[in-house]
Specification:
Helices cover about 70% and strands about 5% of the residues. It is mainly α. It has a two-stranded antiparallel sheet.
Length: about 230
């Protein structure tokens, strides 16, 4: 056996993971400028070198982008070079329906698990996203992709299942682009957007009420509604 010494996790890796989670949870939104490295270093009580290494890794992954003379910003998934879903959908290799079929399997189970395991912090994140969606609809007659995606990621994190969370982290770009396309088509249909908002509230209520079957059904109702909406068009 060729066993190797266990190395403690590097500080820069911990910084990377924390900033990445803030992006995926919608705390840092697309287009938003993040704090300068020196301020992040002070806030996280780490060296500026650790922050710089973490930021460079996030830039390489496409989650952040440097803008000359302006700073570092959160990039939008649909603007990232080499986005697999954007490429597949551009060549008609994948459709919104294909994406929704995958989401049906992942997210209905996630909702059921979240109803059993969600912590108060998870519920707070879901409620925050719903609040942002309500504000969007009240002020702009739209629902922001960031708020919608953040809700679904909050459900995933609430499962406490590391495999499912890993899958959803890597699925994020697909989720974001799919939701954006869904909402863009619904912008002229306020009733549809109101229905989508109501679905999210139903999922949240079931999770908060610790009702796994109801949470599963509520998420399925939501995704099925979106499927049927586009199949009729």
């Amino acid at each position: 056996m060729n066993l190797k010494p266990i190395k403690p996790k590097r500080i820069s890796d911990q910084v990377f993971e924390q900033v990445r989670e803030l992006i995926l949870k919608g705390e840092f939104k697309s287009g938003q400028q993040i704090l300068p490295e020196r301020e992040l270093a002070v806030s996280m009580a780490v060296s500026r070198t650790s922050v710089s290494n973490a930021i460079n890794k996030l830039v390489t992954m496409g989650l952040l982008e440097h803008r000359q003379g302006q700073g570092t910003f959160v990039s939008s998934p649909d603007n990232r070079n080499g986005n697999p879903l954007a490429a597949a959908m551009a060549t008609d290799e994948a459709t919104l329906d294909d994406l929704l079929e995958v989401r049906m399997g992942l997210e209905c189970n996630a909702a059921a698990l979240a109803a059993q395991r969600a912590a108060d912090t998870d519920l707070t994140m879901m409620l925050k996203s719903i609040g942002e969606m309500e504000d969007d609809l009240a002020t702009t007659d739209r629902i922001s992709t960031e708020a919608d995606a953040a809700f679904h990621m909050a459900v995933a994190f609430a499962t406490k299942n590391p495999v499912l969370i890993h899958l959803m982290r890597n699925f994020y770009d697909f989720l974001f682009i799919g939701i954006k396309k869904n909402l863009t088509h619904m912008y002229m249909d306020r009733n549809a957007l109101l229905s989508v908002l109501g679905h999210h509230k139903a999922v949240y209520q079931a999770i908060r009420g610790r009702e796994p079957e109801e949470a599963y059904t509520a998420m399925r109702t939501h995704i099925q509604y979106v499927q049927d909406y586009f199949r009729k068009r």
